[in-house]
Amino acid sequence: MALILIVEDEVVLGKTFKASLVDDGHTVHWVPSAEEAQEWLADHQVDLALVDVRLPGIDGVELLRSMVETHPDTTVVMMTAHGDVQTAVQAMKLGAADFLIKPVDLDAVSLVAERNLKHRRMTQRWKHEQKSRTQAFGLHQIIGDCAKIEKAKAWVRRMSDLGVAATERPPNVLITGETGTGKDLLAKAFHYEGPRAEAPFVHVNCGALPESLVESELFGHTKGAFTDARSSKRGLFEVADQGTLFLDEIGALALPLQAKILTAIETGNIRPVGSEDERPVNVQLIAAMNQDPERWVKEGKLRGDLYHRLRVIHVHLPPLRERGPDLYVLADHFLRLHCAKFGMPLKPLDAAAKKALRAYHWPGNVRELCHRLESAILLCGDTVEAEFLPQPTRRMNTPPGGQESEYIATDFSRGPVPLESVERELIRRALTASRQNVSRAADLLSISRDALRYRIDKYSLTSTRNGGSR
Predict the structure, then answer these.
(1) 290 and 464 Cβ atoms separated by less than 8 Å
(2) Does residue 184 form part of some domain?
(3) CA–CA separation, 101 vs 49, rounded Å?
(4) Is residue 358 part of a domain?
(5) 189 and 296 assigned to the same domain
(6) Are 163 and 119 in contact (CB under 8 A)?
(7) 52 forms bridges with which residues in the sheet?
(8) For residue range 348-378, what is the model confidence (pLDDT) as tens digits?
(9) How far is CA 283 from the centre of its chain?
């Protein structure tokens, strides 16, 4: 079960404790002095140490000081007589996890040992999970080395080196880029590479929150604040306290709510719905947008004061089509990842497939590339061929003046034209013509809003709702 060290100068008591803990299934070593304990600890890593405060030579408190430095992962429980309680309290401040007051009942020894070992196991599990998250979402997971990606990585490293995220009012971060460029991955890198890595990372998809519940979700509410508020609830700002709050697609929030987020940023306080009292929060705020924020400010969709508060650090992630050789590096990464996941030998791209990768526009960017290659390896043979990859939409040439033709031309003499590519282009143009309004675009295409929304998600396009953003 566990390796336990007992440091007790009373021989009978030490051996009795040892026998009791051995009966509980533990491996136990007993020594009568701190000096012998230090000598034995030089070759052993113990889970739990029961240390008497009063020992001949080096006392228990000094042994504790030494163990905190040399064996920080060992849980130490101090044992003391009734008159030495103050000494035990001092030991707790130095790093002891618990203490026992003599005379000690053997059942109490077993209970305290099990309680502290359970806490140790939970702590180790939590540390392992945090380490796993860091490995899964650290900077090394951002694949590619084009200039703009290297610049984004440099910002993460600089923030980590400066440690400014640990302050009470950390600088806000704004990440922009098209859908699928990896904004969420970069936000996690900011968190897990920084000083808040052991605190919560809370990802909020602002576009997915029901408009009627957004304020309650972000700031919380008190019992009875509205009809369904049967109990009080913490908001996501409070859940992320001491950690990072990632507001993905912040432009989807209505302007009044943007004002409340601005207030929270400026004051460091939030007010739950239905409450008259403010509550302090300390969060690293990272926001993301897949639209041009300056254009949205001009169009009145994003508050200018909020935008300037958010862009203390502004990182723009380039679309995949502008990342040059990174396209092949990412493709190779995803092919290895997917083939390993399905237990397949590596399936490389053939020459025609590489050309197809470069010819395609990749509107869904890195996310689309990942999913397309996953599909391709399941359909292809030993190599990934061009027929298993998306094909570029063939359009009429753009006329002088840069305006798109109102027609979509196809040329079957050059090979098959996938229906999906034509449908995607048609939807894209309808959204452009309707100024990204879903209802108007659906009318232009003579389909329902739900049918259009399905296709918008299918082709990784972006749009706005009637009266709100999406």
Answers:
(1) no
(2) yes
(3) 15
(4) no
(5) yes
(6) no
(7) 79
(8) 999 999 999 998 989 899 999 999 999 999 9
(9) 14
Structure tokens at 233: 């609830």
pTM value is 0.64
**pLDDT confidence of residue 396:** 37
Among 57, 60, 45, smallest CA distance to 102 is for 60
Question: Does any domain span residue 330?
Answer: no
Buried b (16+ CB within 10 A) or exposed e, 184-200: bbbbbbbbbbbbbbebe
- Read off the pLDDT of residues 198-215 as tens digits, 9 standing for 90 and up: 889 999 999 888 887 889
b/e per residue, 382-406, with b = 16+ CB within 10 A? eebbbebbbbebbbeeeeeeeeeee
Which of 135-144, 302-311, 325-334, 369-378 shows the lowest mean pLDDT across its residues? 135-144
- Asked if residue 247 is part of any domain, the answer here is yes
The answer to whether 9 touches 33, Cβ cutoff 8 Å, is yes
Instruction: Average the pLDDT over 433-442 and give the result.
Output: 84
Question: For residue 57, how many other CB atoms are within 10 A of its CB?
Answer: 11
Q: Is 383 helix (H, G, I), strand (E, B) or coil?
A: coil
- How many degrees, rounded to 5, is the angle at CA 460 between CA 174 and CA 341? 95
By C-alpha distance, which of 225, 28, 193, 12 is closest to 110? 28
Please state the length of the chain: 470
d(CA 116, CA 283): 31
Residues 6+ positions from 171 with CB-CB distance below 8 Å? 159, 164, 165, 312, 313
Do residue 105 and residue 88 come from a single domain? yes
Same domain, 190 and 260: yes
pLDDT value at residue 339: 96
Q: What is the extent of the structural domain holding 117? A: 3-130
Mean model confidence pLDDT for the chain: 87
What percent helix, strand, coil does the chain show, rounded to 5?
50, 15, 35
d(C-alpha 45, C-alpha 58), whole Å = 20
Nearest CA to 144 out of 22, 274, 283, 327 is that of: 327
- Check whether residue 412 and residue 438 sit in a common domain: yes
